[in-house]
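FAQ: What does the model actually see?

It sees only this:
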Amino acid sequence: MAYACRDLGFLYGFGVPKPIHCIVAVAQNGVIGREGRLPWHIPEDLEWFTDQTVGGVMIEGPACYQELGKALSGRGTVVVSRDEKKVFPGAMRASNLVSAIVEAEKLPWSGPTWITGGERIYAEGLAHCSKLYITRIHQDFLGDRTFPKDWQKTFTRLVWSKESRQADLSYTFEIWER
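And it is asked to produce this:
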């Protein structure tokens, strides 16, 4: 179930809430994953991801946590999983996205809360985000997980972009606002 940004107004009880941003890499056909992994290897994009999220709190699903192999240092991590028996070393577990956002607010990290995937977390989380950090990969990839196709209905203002290339693969880093 998606909640509108205003539905999180209760977070003001914690003081000024952390901004909520989304960060994602997306192939031109909308693919973001295949069999629990990224279908590409772009070191510059991984560096972009780690540089942007440091100091904040990442909210991710179990497959994303597993893809990274651990909770990354220098930031908090909340994994959204309905499986109460699952343990995610170095991370907190929340049973749904709204609970994850509440937990992220309580963590001592001063940076933004980051919606970092996967498919279900992005689908539910975009409604809460004020900014979208997207790496647009200019190639189609086979995959079984996609990013919401209608994201540009929510994020309408491109505020920054940078073209880049790795061998035969071109991509663009972009930051969008509502």
